[in-house]
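Aim 2 progress. For DNA primase small subunit PriS, the working sequence is reproduced below.
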Amino acid sequence: MNTFAEVQKLYKEYYNFAIKNDILEVPEGIEYREFGYGYLKKVDNRNLSFKNEREYKDWVLKNAPMHLYKSLAYMLYPNKSGGASKKGIFRRELAFDIDVHKTTKCKHDEDWICEHCLEEAKKQTIYLIEEFLIPDFGLDEEDLRIVFSGNRGYHIYIKPKDENIREIIENYSKEDRGFLMDYVLGKNLNLNYIGKSWRRRLIKAIKEKDKRISTKKLEKENNWRKIIENLKSKNKIYNIVEETKNKLELDEKVMDDDIRLLRVINSLHGYTGFIVKQLSDLKDLKKFNPLEDAIFKHFENKYYEIEILDNRKFEIEICGKKYNNKSKKITASALLFLFGHNIKFELL
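Predicted C-alpha cells for this construct:
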C-alpha cells in the first residue's frame, strides 16, 4: 500500500467532512486574502488567491493540502509575488502566536510532543489572556478568538466586538504592533519607573516564588531599582523579573511580518494530523486536551496494520491509545501523526 497516497486519501476524507459540515474557516474578505499550502513542507507555495468561497472550497476539496494557511493581511493583489510592497496591503488582523519548545518534563526530542509541552502551551495562553489581554488591554473574552495551532501552540486573534476599535487596531502599523509585542515581553520595562500593570504582575510573581521577600515597599513605589538595590534579596528579585519577562514563548514574526500566514481554522496540521481547532471561550480552553479534543473522531475508527522500520524510540498517546516503535496496529490518527513526524513505516 502506498503510504503517501493513503495519507492524501485521509486528508481528502477530512476536508470533505469539514466542508460538508461547514466547519472549515472561510476568512473574512476572502478575495483579499493570500493563501499558502504545503504537503511535505509547511509551505510549498503561496501567492494563491480565490475570488469567492466556492472557488476556495473547490480548491481545498481537490487538493487536500496537509498544511493550509491564510494571510492575516487584506491585500489588493494577494496573488502577486515579490513581497509586501507588491501586494497593496490595506488592513491586517492582529494575532498572537504561542509556540512553545519542549519542557524539562518532556522526555522526547524537540520535534515531538507530549502532554507536558501541550499543557505548557495552554498555561502560557491562559497567562497571556488573563495577565495581559483582559486586564491591560481592556478586552473581554468575547473579543478574543482562541485557536489551538494543531501542534504545540495557540493562536489568539484580537477581534473586538466594537467595530470602531477593530477598525483602529486592524490598521495598526508594523511599529504599533511591535510596541504591543514589546510590552507583553517586557522589552520596554523600566525598573526606574514601573507602571502599575507590570508592578502588579511582578509582585504576584515574587509572592509566588518566595513568600519571604517583603513586597510592601515595592507595592507603593514606582522606582523599584532604588528599593531593590538596598535589599539582600536583590539578585533573587532581579531573577524573578527576568523569569517573568521570559514567561511567554511568542513568535514575534506573527505580529511583525506584514504578509505573515497563519493556519486556517479547522484545517489539519500536516505534522500531527490534529485539527487547528477554535475554542469557544477561556473555560473551554482550560479543559481542552489536544490529544483527545483535536482529533478527528472518524479517524479513530479506522485501523491499519503496519511494520515500523525506524530505529528511533518514541511514544505518543492519542485518544487514550498508546503507540510506540513496537506498535503493529494503529488508527488513522496515529498514522497521520507518525507520517508527519517522518517515522519510517510500511503499511501491510
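The longest strand covers residues 94-99. This observation will guide construct design in the next reporting period.
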